[in-house]
Amino acid sequence: MSLILTTDSVEPKERLAYWNDMICATYVQLETDAVQSDDFSGSIVTHRLPGMELSVVKSSAQKVLRTPHVISRSSDDFFIVSLQTQGQAIISQDGRDAHMSPGDCCVYDSTRPYTLHFGSGFEEIVLKFRRDQIHALLGGTELLTATTVEGHTGAGRVLFSLIHTLLNEIDRLRPAAAAAVANGVVNVLVAGLQSLPACKKAELSNLNAYHVARIRQYMDEHVRDPSLTIEMMAAHLGMSCGHLHRVFKNEAMSPSQYLWSQRLDACSRELIDLRKANLSVAAIAFSWGFNDAAHFSRAFRERFHCSPREWRQQAAAMAIAQGQRSADERG
């Protein structure tokens, strides 16, 4: 479902304040510094997909700030990606400045201060993810913020192509397909970040990376087993529990956190799969290794900021809206 916000219907003298409210409601709590003028304008078109929010922003020159004071008053915990499509931008965080031209992309973290500077009118595509989604796949992200990923080659080019295709087809995607595409976007984004020099410097040794991959593969293969424990994994893989934990010392998630994350993600996908509509929430949770419905609901809400039932209802509403649009197009 899409949400369109614009300053067009607002009196010129009230547009800056209205715009600041718009970006705070769409992204995180922010402060906007822009020159008051009668021709200031801005619009945001937001599409909400399972696991990702995608928006297209068009506006006049401005500076957007995420200050320590603002951070102290909010609990926003997101990883945000800007893909520049028109105009120039400078994104600053963690002592670095990314100079953005059309075709470039860059990431920043809502838990630390940052500044977005647009010297003239611009357009950008913004992706917003839960921070733990990215941290589950990539450690050391504080080394990768405010660093330009060029969009004319490699993973950056693939990401731009994927996002443009998604924007063209987003109103026709069923919820399960949209979730799969969002997951693909995350994987391509991680591939792009892994190509950055700072990420390569922080890579684990080949032997340690080998053990991490073995452990994750074992968890992926046994993710549905409710009796799976660290002790079982260690015994099967021929290592002590202490060694297994040491292998994950530099990872964004511990082995247990990774396992629960995989289970929650699997449940989130099945809850919006129309082929699983006859299954109860509890049945889906139990099939993915959870053995306590109340614990599952709490963990799901903490991860996705809504209950499993609300997640499923949102997907059903999206499917109904898409069906209505298809009927209108045929009519």
CATH domain class name of the largest domain? Mainly Beta
CATH topology of the largest domain: Jelly Rolls
Number of helices: 13
Q: Please count the beta strands (DSSP E, at least 2 residues each).
A: 11
Outline the structure in words.
Helices cover 46% and strands 20% of the residues. The strands form 2 sheets. The chain has a 6-stranded antiparallel β-sheet with strand order 1-3-4-11-6-9. Strands 2-5-10-7-8 form a 5-stranded antiparallel β-sheet. The chain is built from 13 helices and 11 strands. The chain is an alpha+beta fold. It has 2 domains: 2-201, Jelly Rolls (Sandwich); 206-320, Homeodomain-like (Arc Repressor Mutant, subunit A, Orthogonal Bundle).
What's the short version?
The protein is of the alpha+beta class. The chain contains 13 helices and 11 strands. The mean pLDDT is 87.
What are the key terms here?
46% helix, Jelly Rolls, six-stranded antiparallel β-sheet, 331 residues, five-stranded antiparallel β-sheet, alpha+beta, Arc Repressor Mutant, subunit A
Set out the fold topology.
Blueprint: E1 2-6, H1 15-26, E2 31-33, E3 42-49, E4 52-59, E5 62-66, H2 68-72, E6 78-86, E7 89-93, E8 96-100, E9 105-109, E10 114-118, E11 122-130, H3 131-135, H4 154-169, H5 175-194, H6 197-201, H7 206-221, H8 230-237, H9 241-247, H10 255-271, H11 281-287, H12 293-304, H13 308-330
Antiparallel strand pairs: 1-3, 2-5, 3-4, 4-11, 5-10, 6-9, 6-11, 7-8, 7-10
Helix pairs in contact: 4-5, 7-10
